[in-house]
Design brief:
alpha+beta, Deoxyribonuclease I, Chain A, six-stranded mixed β-sheet, 24% helix
C-alpha cells in the first residue's frame, strides 16, 4: 500500500503552532506533499524536524516568505528535481519532484491568479508551460515503467460540483472557463486522472479550502482545489480518498484541509 497526503499549510511556522506537528506525528501517510510553506529549510520549526521517520526535501521561493513546496517521505528519495524547466517559474517555490521506487511524486503550488490582472496573465503562462511539461513527464516515466502522482493546491475548481457558490464565481480566478478547460485537457489528452473524483464521482464537494472570512467553514462554503492527480495505471489502484476536514473551525491549522489517497 502507498498512502499520499497533500496539504497547503498556509505557512509551516504558523501551522506548527496550531496543530500541524500533532497531525504529522499521527498520520499514516508514506508521503506528505506540502504547499505554501513560506520558509527555507533552515527556517523549519524545530518541533517539525523532531518528528522521527521523515526524509525532507524543500523548494523555497526566491521571494522570501512566499510560496514554497516540500515533500516529506518515509523512504529516502532516489533523486529529486526543483522546477520543471521554466526560466520564469523554477525559482518561485511552486514545484518539487521526488523519485521514489516505482513512482515519481510531485508537490505543486499553482498560482492563484486574479481575474483581469497581470497575476492572471502569469497564471496562464504557468498553465501553458506546466501542461507541456506534464505531458512530457507522463511519457518519460511511462517509458521507464514508472507511475506519476502530482499532488497539491491546483487553485482551480474543475467542475460546478467542486465549489459551493459556483454561479457567483463564474468570473472569478480559479473557476474561469479557460482554467477549467485546461483541467479538462489535463484529465483528457494529457492522460492524467483526478483520483478523488474517480473514487467519488458524485458531488457536491468534498471541499478542501474554506475562506477564513465569515462562517465559510461552518457552512461548508468551500472550494475543491487540492487534488491528487496520477497517471491512469496508478489511479486504477487507488482504493480510498478522503479530505481530512477538521471537526471545528478552532481546530484548523490551515485554511486548507489535507487530502489523503491510498493506493494498493
Amino acid at each position: 500500500m502507498l498512502t499520499i497526503t497533500t496539504a497547503n499549510v498556509n505557512g509551516i511556522r504558523a501551522a506548527a503552532r496550531k496543530g500541524f506537528v500533532a497531525w504529522l506525528r499521527e498520520t499514516t501517510a508514506d508521503v506528505v506533499c506540502l504547499q505554501e510553506v513560506r520558509a527555507t529549510e533552515t527556517e523549519i520549526p524545530q518541533d517539525v524536524i523532531d518528528v522521527p521517520g521523515w526524509h525532507r526535501l524543500w523548494a523555497p521561493a526566491a521571494d522570501k516568505g512566499r510560496a514554497g513546496v516540500a515533500v516529506f517521505s518515509k523512504e529516502s528519495a532516489i533523486a529529486h528535481r526543483v522546477g520543471f524547466g521554466s526560466a520564469e517559474f523554477d525559482t518561485s517555490g511552486r514545484y518539487l519532484e521526488v523519485e521514489l521506487p516505482g513512482v515519481t511524486v510531485a508537490s505543486l503550488y499553482l498560482p492563484s491568479g486574479e481575474a483581469e490582472t497581470p497575476k492572471q496573465e502569469q497564471k496562464e503562462r504557468f498553465l501553458v508551460e506546466f501542461g507541456e511539461y506534464l505531458g512530457a513527464l507522463r511519457k518519460r516515466e511511462e517509458a521507464r515503467g514508472r507511475e506519476v502522482v502530482v499532488c497539491g493546491d491546483w487553485n482551480i475548481a474543475h467542475q460546478e460540483i467542486d465549489l459551493k457558490n459556483w454561479r457567483a464565481n463564474r468570473k472569478s480566478a480559479g473557476f474561469l472557463p479557460g482554467e477549467r478547460a485546461w483541467m479538462s485537457t489535463l484529465f483528457g489528452e494529457l492522460g492524467y486522472v483526478d483520483v478523488h473524483r474517480k473514487l467519488q464521482p458524485e458531488g457536491p464537494g468534498p471541499y478542501t479550502w474554506w475562506s477564513y472570512r465569515g462562517r465559510a467553514f461552518d457552512n461548508d462554503t468551500g472550494w475543491r482545489i487540492d487534488y491528487v492527480v496520477s497517471t491512469a495505471g496508478l489511479a486504477e489502484r487507488a482504493v480510498k480518498a478522503q479530505v481530512e476536514r477538521a471537526s471545528s473551525h478552532e481546530e484548523r491549522w490551515s485554511d486548507h484541509a489535507p487530502v489523503t489517497v491510498t493506493f494498493e
